[in-house]
């Protein structure tokens, strides 16, 4: 028994009251809670106790850990992560200011990319040893797995002070960078600037151009969303070949979205909305309605197998040769969640070697080969055949809409439509 919550409270209630518990639950394996829609829809239907027991976790131990998280506002002793106190003296070292490189990396490439980055960083320090001794700054980095969320970055952004923001920021998705209440306001005032002149032909062609003509954002790679079809669950239906096919009535209650991957989820609903409008979002919700169930948050039921999973491209590489699962790259293109890099203008000269590293062919090859995340570097071979196209919302759409408000609306519309099914 504690003074904060009861184990009979729902997961939604406790995470709504204490949002610092969301990363805790994610670390324990409840990754869909990163998605606000899934947290609300699933979390309202399952108690804390039942959720923990479903993972065979010690409820007493977890209760104590949760209380510790609530008290301290951090999960460093539990997960190795540390809450950043942006006002603490840790931002100084002998009077030196921090030049910060921060962000999140897709899980499949985090380790190989960090290894290369640390090699580069070590070489940089050796080559610039004398310069760094007398410099009025020190360079620090904090690059985490994307599955743990970006709350720690949002906390810095919400202060409204540009001095609290990293000098290089990496992340996928749209919400953080285009929400006018988050990074959007700092883009408009010129705090960040990054220009890419040459880009890989996979992303710069007659169909699309990922170069930002305003030079605010750099896209260093992309997470493509494709379809993984379970041929044994089609029940005589023809596999969908396009996104429009997927929205047909015959696939109602037959589709699973990557709810645990908020960036890809946002990319899918934004793109569907742009191409097919509100009706498309309604139909997508209807297609996914059956799989918005607490079982998704815990183990999943064998009898509830979706005919189609919308999934990151790299999942297709895990399909066994004789499996009933077949990867379908939509003929109209894989929907992409771009991986963005922002560079703070005032310290761009200092951070240029690091920005160049993230834009380099070496980094691009890690993206393409280790994670199957196509790179925008022009010298990287993404190993994609000519028929593998991409679609995305486009710069005009992003610049002409308040993406934060739009995503909030689309999530509510999606939730309402799904619950009606």
TrEMBL record:
<dbReference type="GO" id="GO:0030976">
    <property type="term" value="F:thiamine pyrophosphate binding"/>
</dbReference>
<protein>
    <recommendedName>
        <fullName>DUF1858 domain-containing protein</fullName>
    </recommendedName>
</protein>
<dbReference type="Pfam" id="PF08984">
    <property type="entry name" value="DUF1858"/>
</dbReference>
<dbReference type="InterPro" id="IPR038062">
    <property type="entry name" value="ScdA-like_N_sf"/>
</dbReference>
<dbReference type="Pfam" id="PF13343">
    <property type="entry name" value="SBP_bac_6"/>
</dbReference>
<dbReference type="GO" id="GO:0030975">
    <property type="term" value="F:thiamine binding"/>
</dbReference>
<dbReference type="GO" id="GO:0015888">
    <property type="term" value="P:thiamine transport"/>
</dbReference>
<feature type="domain" description="DUF1858">
    <location>
        <begin position="6"/>
        <end position="61"/>
    </location>
</feature>
<keyword id="KW-0732">Signal</keyword>
<dbReference type="GO" id="GO:0030288">
    <property type="term" value="C:outer membrane-bounded periplasmic space"/>
</dbReference>
<dbReference type="InterPro" id="IPR015077">
    <property type="entry name" value="DUF1858"/>
</dbReference>
């Amino acid at each position: 028994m504690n003074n904060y919550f009861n184990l009979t409270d729902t997961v939604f209630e406790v995470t709504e009251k204490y949002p610092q518990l969301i990363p805790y639950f994610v670390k324990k394996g409840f990754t869909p809670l990163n998605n606000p829609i899934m947290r609300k829809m699933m979390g309202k239907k399952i108690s804390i106790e039942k959720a923990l027991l479903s993972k065979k976790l010690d409820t007493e131990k977890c209760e104590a850990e949760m209380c510790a998280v609530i008290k301290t506002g951090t999960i460093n002793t539990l997960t190795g992560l540390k809450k950043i106190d942006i006002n603490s003296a840790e931002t100084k070292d002998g009077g030196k200011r921090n030049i910060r490189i921060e962000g999140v990396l897709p899980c499949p490439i985090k380790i190989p990319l960090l290894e290369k980055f640390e090699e580069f960083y070590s070489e940089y320090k050796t080559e610039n040893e004398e310069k760094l001794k007398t410099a009025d700054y020190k360079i620090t980095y904090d690059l985490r797995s994307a599955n743990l969320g970006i709350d720690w970055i949002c906390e810095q952004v919400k202060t409204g002070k540009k001095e609290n923001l990293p000098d290089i920021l990496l992340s996928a998705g749209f919400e953080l960078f285009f929400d006018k209440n988050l990074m959007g306001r700092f883009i408009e005032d010129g705090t960040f600037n990054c220009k890419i002149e040459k880009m890989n032909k996979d992303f710069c062609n007659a169909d699309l151009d990922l170069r930002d003509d305003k030079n605010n954002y750099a896209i260093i790679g992309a997470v493509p969303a494709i379809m993984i079809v379970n041929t044994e669950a089609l029940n005589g239906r023809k596999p969908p070949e396009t996104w429009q096919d997927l929205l047909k009535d015959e696939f109602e209650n037959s589709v699973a979205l990557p709810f645990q991957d908020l960036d890809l989820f946002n990319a899918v609903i934004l793109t569907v909305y742009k191409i097919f409008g509100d009706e498309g979002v309604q139909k997508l919700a209807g297609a996914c309605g059956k799989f918005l169930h607490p079982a998704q948050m815990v183990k999943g039921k064998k009898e509830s197998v979706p005919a189609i999973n919308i999934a990151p491209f790299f999942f297709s590489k895990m399909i066994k040769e004789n499996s009933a699962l077949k990867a379908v790259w939509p003929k109209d293109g894989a929907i992409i969640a771009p991986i963005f890099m922002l560079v703070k203008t005032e310290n761009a000269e200092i951070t240029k070697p690091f920005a160049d590293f993230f834009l380099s062919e070496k980094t691009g090859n890690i993206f393409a080969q280790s994670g199957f995340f196509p790179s925008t570097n022009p010298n990287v071979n993404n190993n994609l055949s000519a028929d593998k196209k991409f679609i995305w919302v486009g710069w005009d759409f992003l610049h002409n809409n308040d993406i934060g408000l739009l995503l909030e609306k689309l999530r509510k519309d999606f939730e309402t439509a799904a619950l009606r099914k």
